[in-house]
Amino acid sequence: MAPGLYRFGDSHVNWYVLEDKGALTVIDGGMPTHWAQLLDWLARRTLSIDAIKAVVLTHGHADHLGIVERVRREADARVHVHEADRPLSRGLGLRRPPRRIIHNLWRPHNLAVNVAWMRDGIMRVPPILQASTFSDGEVLDVPGKLRVIHTPGHSPGSSTLVAQNDTVALTGDALVTLDVVTGRSGAGIMPGKLNDDPDQALASLRNLEGLNARIVLPGHGRPWPEGLPDALNRARRAGIDWRDVSPHYHGHDHTAPQRGPRR
User: Fold this and answer.
1) Which of 76, 155, 190, 217 has the fewest CB atoms below 10 angstroms from its CB?
2) Could you tell me the maximum CA-CA distance found in the chain, to the nearest angstrom?
3) pTM of the predicted model, to two decimals?
């Protein structure tokens, strides 16, 4: 992805490892079955699990927590999450798929994603028992140093993490390049009710203005090498896509529930 940055996960969800002088920061944690990816990569780099010093979460949804608690325990690494998403990472709603997902299982891509996630253990994601919290603007004292930009809307504590002298933006689900409901690709926010607050999710893109990161690493979809300003422009033009909402669904839901590394 960039010197010292590695991408893991699968075709539906990404997580990353940032290396700085042999010390590692894991960013998000994909699915429980992704543990093997981490061990294989560490072995090939002749690194031990103890090289992992920190885990930083872009947000607290289950599809980004898969290996986090296991990393915390086995590496004795400190987990960092935005203060507003600490309840989510602690397990709030972890075993309850959001209605906005259930009511869109009739969509072929969404069904395929959820079948894959069930196979990969999304219903067995453990809560994060211990974590430190951060807030907007903090520079985290972790390997590689990460600056926090709060970009709420997808979840209350959704945050973009800026690395490598502001040249890389790890946007989590605040800005993605894959619509997990329909399979459409392109820079945008999560569709409609996959956000806790869709209007806030779109408005939060303003918090990233002025940041000229040349690479965008999202939580879903391929990296965006055309730079953050281009991704923001495209996301604004796309706006909020409400087509993820089933025509038969009129409820309200404000809960939030590629194998191997690529350089």
Assistant:
1) 76
2) 53
3) 0.89
